[in-house]
């Protein structure tokens, strides 16, 4: 099963993945694409992260048992949020340009786990306005079957143990 755990920043993605991986050592864990991209790219790093997240899902050598932190929809959501908030004059164009790659990669995903920001408060330096706009955009994008390719979606909230139990049930079912 190929699982992508998606959500805006500070939503508990790493915690859920870590807890899941401890129970499922046979699953390969793919880190946040942020770790794979040069930060000096500035706003271009969102597109670079989108491409990195898509390319790894499209890699023919990717094992079947995978849990990935973030997928291409996460980065489409950031682009949509930048556009919504008026923070980038190019975000809408980039969103349209990168959507086909994101859709192609999402067809390789069996389960998309969505984590919302409602359970975790963040300080101002974490940009709560961007966080909320990205969370809304991610939910809208996840509703678009042209982008998700019919991938099964699990929307999780609650404490880490509750989220883990729901993920466990989805994987078992």
What does the model show?
It contains seven helices and five strands, in the order E-H-E-H-E-H-H-E-H-H-E-H. It has one domain: 3-Layer(aba) Sandwich (Rossmann fold), CATH 3.40.50.300. Helix 2 links the parallel strand 2 and strand 3. It has a five-stranded parallel sheet with strand order 2-3-1-4-5, with helices on both faces. The mean pLDDT is 93. It starts with a strand and ends with a helix. The protein has 173 residues and is α/β, with parallel strands linked by helices. The chain is 50% helix and 13% strand.
Which properties best describe this structure?
173 residues; alpha/beta; Rossmann fold; 5-stranded parallel β-sheet; 7 helices
Write the layout of secondary structure elements.
Elements: E1 2-6, H1 13-23, E2 28-30, H2 44-58, E3 66-69, H3 72-84, H4 91-106, E4 111-115, H5 128-142, H6 145-148, E5 152-156, H7 160-172
Parallel strand pairs: 1-3, 1-4, 2-3, 4-5
Helix pairs in contact: 1-7, 2-3, 2-4, 3-4, 3-5
